[in-house]
Amino acid sequence: MTPDAINAAVSAEWPHARTSCIEVSDRHATAMLRPGDGALRPGGYVSGPTQFAAADAALWYLVFGAIDRIELLALTSELSIRFLRPAVGGELYATASLDGRSRRSVVGTVKVWTDDNIDAPCATAQGTYILPSPSAR
Question: By C-alpha distance, which of 118, 96, 119 is closest to 109?
């Protein structure tokens, strides 16, 4: 499983995706998003929905690493986010860490930060992805 394989598969099915996978393993994944002008609030703050999107993408990429296949039909079951400080910067990153995996779900915790300042997270999130049943594939 590589970021290039994930990015190619996502791009083929969803060419307007704003995130890319920059790191993936069976225990974690990192997404990167470059917020456009429409994602910025007054003062240059990255909007909450944009941070949420980065967290959701990182968790989605984590699913691929955790199950060792690209499963584009995996769906967010739940995701909660807590904003810790304003997000200001040209690039937004989100790293998801695996908390648990079952036959039908993957649970992870996500840290969101800007401009490669991982020690000062803007937000933290926790969520669950549901894997499709074999008949849905």
Answer: 96
